[in-house]
């Protein structure tokens, strides 16, 4: 068997070498691009075409991924991640509009939408992330510096993040990338006296706000009560003016109730039956 193989090699050496070279050349002409990546085919140092380019509305499996042919030695395949990527900002101090120092942790999420531009300006995705990190720091510092610390605890913080994302996205487009989102992971006051002083100021502010609300409530209650009493007096006056005799009777009944119906009173009042005070008991009209 060994002799047969040796003889075959001696007789077909040229053919075997040619076949091996052909197989190697064929394999070097073929590459596979996965669904999670896009590829820039670079010919002699210049981008020639893009395979599996990111398209927002393209269905999975319909973007051009798979086997790709290239010219060996003349064409190079540069693979670029097609997924959403993160860039983390190093923890840094930011001064708010009310001169409070904040320690902020943030991150941004981006994807490459123009692989040719990315290749020409940055070369790799890692270089894009390196370029975006200081830009994120600068944009975030500028935007938060326009707002008070209290506003960062309210819905106004959402608008701040939108502005930061837009500012970072404008810069990212220069590298063929799109910023999808920017988030603050943490925004804390530095430990120690500044933190304690901030809590004291916040507590005092809340107490003052509560006192203002209570004072406003008491004022509104007094206004409502005075208005109601005025309306009642007006109604009484209009009613009694229409029937003076009824008004006289009503006043007498109120007086009798106040005089004779007091609980626990041992006071005795002696009046003549002809006293004018008791005229209503006689049915006087």
Summarize the structure in words.
The chain has about 280 residues and is α+β, with helices and mostly antiparallel strands. The protein has four domains: about 1-80, no CATH class; about 85-190, 2-Layer Sandwich (Tetrahydropterin Synthase, Chain A); about 190-240; about 245-285, no CATH class. Helices cover about 50% and strands about 20% of the residues. The chain contains six helices and eight strands; from the N terminus they run αβββββββαααβαα. The strands form three sheets. Strands 3-2-5 form a three-stranded antiparallel beta sheet, with helices on one face. A hairpin with a 5-residue loop joins strand 6 and strand 7. Helix 3 (about 125-145) runs antiparallel to helix 4. The longest helix has about 50 residues, at about 195-240. The model has no long low-confidence stretch (mean pLDDT about 80). It is a single-pass membrane protein. One of its GO terms (cellular component) is membrane. Its main location: membrane. Pfam families: Band_7.
Topology diagram in text:
Layout: H1 2-29, E1 30-33, E2 37-43, E3 46-51, E4 66-69, E5 75-81, E6 85-95, E7 101-112, H2 115-121, H3 125-144, H4 156-172, E8 177-188, H5 193-242, H6 244-260
Antiparallel strand pairs: 1-4, 2-3, 2-5, 6-7, 7-8
Helix pairs in contact: 3-4, 5-6
Protein name: Protein HflC
Keywords: Hydrolase, Membrane, Protease, Transmembrane, Transmembrane helix
GO molecular function: peptidase activity
């Amino acid at each position: 068997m060994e002799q047969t193989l040796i003889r075959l090699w001696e007789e077909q050496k040229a053919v075997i070498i040619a076949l091996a070279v052909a197989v190697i050349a064929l394999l070097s002409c073929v590459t596979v691009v996965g669904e999670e990546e896009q590829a820039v085919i670079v010919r002699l140092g210049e981008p020639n075409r893009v395979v599996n380019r990111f398209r927002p509305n393209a269905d999975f499996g319909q973007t051009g991924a798979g086997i790709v042919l290239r010219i060996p030695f003349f064409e190079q395949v540069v693979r670029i991640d097609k997924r959403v990527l993160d860039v983390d900002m190093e923890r840094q101090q930011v001064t708010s509009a009310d001169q409070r120092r904040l320690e902020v942790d943030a991150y941004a999420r981006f994807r490459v939408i123009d692989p040719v531009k990315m290749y020409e300006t940055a070369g790799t995705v890692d270089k894009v992330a390196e370029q975006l990190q200081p830009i994120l720091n600068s944009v975030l510092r500028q935007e938060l510096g326009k707002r008070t610390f209290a506003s960062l605890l309210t819905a106004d913080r959402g608008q701040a993040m939108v502005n930061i994302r837009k500012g970072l996205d404008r810069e990212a487009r220069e590298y063929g990338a799109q910023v999808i989102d920017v988030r603050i992971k943490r925004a804390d006051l530095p430990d120690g006296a500044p933190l304690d002083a901030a809590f004291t100021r916040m507590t005092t502010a809340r107490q003052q706000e509560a006192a203002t609300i209570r004072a406003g409530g008491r004022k509104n209650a007094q206004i409502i009560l005075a208005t109601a009493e005025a309306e009642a007096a007006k109604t009484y006056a209009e009613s009694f003016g229409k029937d003076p005799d009824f008004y006289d009777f009503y006043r007498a009944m109120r007086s009798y109730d106040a005089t004779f119906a007091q609980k626990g009173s041992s006071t005795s009042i002696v009046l003549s039956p002809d006293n004018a005070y008791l005229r209503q008991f006689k049915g006087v009209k």
